[in-house]
Amino acid sequence: MDTDTPYDIAAALLPLVGGPANVTSVAHCMTRLRLGLADRSLVDEESLRALPAVLGTVDDDTYQIVLGPGVVARVTPEFEKLAGGGELATRGAELKEEQRARNATPAKLLLRRIANIFVPLIPALIGCGVLAGLNGLLINMSWLPGLTPALSAVASAFLALISVFVGHNTAKEFGGTPVLGGAVAAVVVYPGVAKVTAFGVALSPGQGGVLGALAAALLGTYVEKWCRTWVPATLDVLVTPTLTVLVPGLATLYGLMYAAGEISTAIGTAANWLLSTTGPFAGLILGGLFLPLVMLGLHQALIPIHTTLIQQQGYTVLLPILAMAGAGQVGAAVAVYFRLRHDTSLRTTIKSALPAGLLGIGEPLVYGVSLPLGRPFLTACAGGAAGGAFVGFFATLGDKVGATAIGPSGWALFPLLTGNRGLGTTMAIYGGGLLTGYAVGFLATCLVGLSRVVPGDASRE
To answer: b/e per residue, 181-217, with b = 16+ CB within 10 A?
Structure first.
């Protein structure tokens, strides 16, 4: 079957996950089609992985099919139409709640909700980050001076108002009215807050950033729910919105903005101190542990930290170091490819997944190669640790390498790089980190990453 078009890919996927009757929900993130399934035993895993468009699968709280960036965004609406469109919500609501109740430990539920708030913002962060980088290049080269102010406005507008979007998504995630969450969070960025004094200090527009916006919208959601329980229906349309904006709005001005501002400042100070004083060690730990964090879903806790750093400093210094984990994974996979010459199936998997891995999409290599083999996963972590230590070492010398957006890694992060020593130096350090990660991941896997005989193929040595 020709699977070049999004419709054809969706049509090929649907029967392999049990057909329309088995699909209870459809969503997607940057790279994965996320499906709620009534019965996962109906999934034809082997045939699914054999499809050219499928880079891998992940069986988690939802069943996830890795299609890659761009492709997944086009396939998802076609898949949803084929699976039943609007009927999915009705059919899957009870099953989804039952599954969530089974899987939702407090920690997992919190991380999932954090992801639901911030992940939808990533495409805008990427687009604006690329434009900001392009604008900085034009300014440094003194090119198109008449265009750079306009590009600056386009690139900066979203970041200036990101608190409003965080508030909107927070209210939506916690069961409030999204526009009221955005209205409360808008207080954080309103220029007029400069006339308000809290704790003896005049507030600054944007103080507290996304953390303040999140707290304000969360409080607003609880106030709204409380109002719904006692306000008469005839007055609800007037009283509830008013109190939902008023009470959290005042609390934001006279407490939350100040507290969130202190926390945001502490995050920025801690990140800078960590890399400037313990750069190689911090890079080694962060780069080495990121793959296990991703496996456990704990990396989602870093999203608000990245966003806070981007809003506060213009870039996050953590992402380029964490991206080294993908470099270690690529190096380990290449070593497996050359060492296991007799395993045609595994080598085919590596060849098809390697381009995605170089662009920072690590799931196909993780779930299709290193994790099933065991040791290569550990040597991939070693490569990530070495690459992180390399970037961290330069941080101690005062060379900061940052990313203006979150989401991409690997080679795809180059357009989003920025730093304090010029773009050329920044790219050289990041590129050196990638090469270090590739090399150490490759060598570690060749030396200790493979047992003499891998289970399932007695011919390997």
So the answer is: bbbbbbbbbbeebeeeebeeeebeebbbbbbbbbbbb
